[in-house]
Amino acid sequence: MLAACGGGGSASARRVAPTTTTVAPTTTTTSPAVLAPGSRAVGVRTDVYVDTTRPTPPNGGAPGSPTRSMPTTIWYPATGSATLLPTPNAPPDVAHGPYPLVVFAHGFAVTPQTYGALLARWASAGYVVVAPALPLLNGDAPGGASHADYGAPNIADLDFVVGEALRRAATPGDPLAGLIDPTRVAVAGHSDGEVLAYALGLEACCHDPRVKAVIAMAGNLANAGVLPAPTGVPILHILDDHDPYDPYPASIAFDRQHLPAPNDLLTLISASHLPPFSQPTDPHFDLVTRATVDFLDATLKGRPDGLTALQALVGSAPTLGVLEANPAGPPSS
Question: Would strands 235-240 and 263-268 be described as parallel, antiparallel, or unpaired?
């Protein structure tokens, strides 16, 4: 599994500006509640998101398709007692919503369920997490996982999922109806997926104005093949100093030289590529969980001390991680 997750390809090789969908915003008068992981019950469901406007090419002996079909797993706050264990198809907790949306992109040859423990914790802290199995990139792809389709098609896939989740949340009777605040959207990704999230937040070609924050995990953003644009979207980049696929010195050097503020660079000490993001038994997993929730609280929920909490969190675990915080400067006149 680790060997399958190396983010070495260039997502920008054949990229195009993705199509966006306009959804009427939900009017909210207060910021969503700031919650620790484990504060809400969690439901989980699987839908199939289908983009009928773009094809899937043949792959490894499997035939192509005129559409792009993505089995999509959704973790969401649910009614019931607080827990980290999701309940399939549990009734959504609409009473405390709407919640910010996080759209997640997986790495190569795995599925969203690989990261289920982390994504359920995000939902338990008051987020709706929507994670598609990206065509050809996922571990269950017909014909086998492949990079043949990686780049512009997958960037557009992720952007389509943002729009589809918002459309469903605005549709009466849909299981997501009323659950999502369309003004509070983040994208996140691991390995190959982190480059896709980076594209929607920080690439001039593909920046989606609905995206207010990016979490990139375990990879070298130079793999995108494009320097970031000054979109103003904050990014948390979590790097592993023992990543076997993306050598750490080059990855952190790209960030320090090219990432515009605001950015937070979290280096995990003595960590490898996948376990800190998928295995609760990994010593870094809890730090990753709490750091990502602090970042989301600061950027999507307007928590005024969120980034300070992030700095204090990492500072309290010096054997596990080091944080380089680069806040935005004063507005230009």
Answer: parallel
